[in-house]
Amino acid sequence: MRLEYGGILGLLILAGDVWAILNVFQSSVPNGTKLVWTLVILLLPLLGLVLWFFLGPRGKVA
Predict the structure, then answer these.
(1) Which residues, including other chains, have CB under 8 Å from residue 46's CB and lie 6 or more apart?
(2) Is 10 a residue whose pLDDT tops 70?
(3) Quick check: 12 pLDDT over 70?
(4) Of 62 and 31, which is predicted with more confidence?
(5) Radius of gyration over every alpha carbon of the chain, rounded to an integer in angstroms
(6) Are 27 and 3 in contact (CB under 8 A)?
(7) I need a labelling partner for 13 at 20 to 30 A (CA). Which of 44, 45, 52, 62 fits?
(8) What is the pTM of this model?
(9) Confidence of residue 3 (pLDDT cuts 50, 70, 90)
């Protein structure tokens, strides 16, 4: 049986993107910023995830 690394990597990126989008929506930044970050993550899955990790919003709603 052959293991497909592309499929596993794709699933890991998808899980990371979902996690990042959930964190964006839980942050305390304005809705426009949330929309921009969500679009970046959705349109550029790997690059958007990396950018969000280093530059994305960090605050939680109190």
Answers:
(1) 13
(2) yes
(3) yes
(4) 31
(5) 13
(6) no
(7) 62
(8) 0.79
(9) low
* Count of CB atoms situated within 10 Å of the CB of 55: 10
Treating both helix axes as pointing N-terminal to C-terminal, what angle do 45-55 and 5-26 enclose, rounded to 10 degrees?
40
Strand partners, 27: 60
- List CB contacts of 33: < 8 A, sequence separation 6 or more: 57
Say which amino acid occupies 46: L
44 C-beta neighbours (distance < 10 Å), count: 14
Q: How many Cα neighbours within 13 Å face the side chain of 1?
A: 1
What does each C-alpha distance from 14 to 10, 28, 32, 60 come to in angstroms?
A: 6, 24, 23, 23
Token pair, residue 14, equals: 């998808």
Query: Does residue 19 contact residue 52 with C-beta atoms inside 8 Å?
Result: no
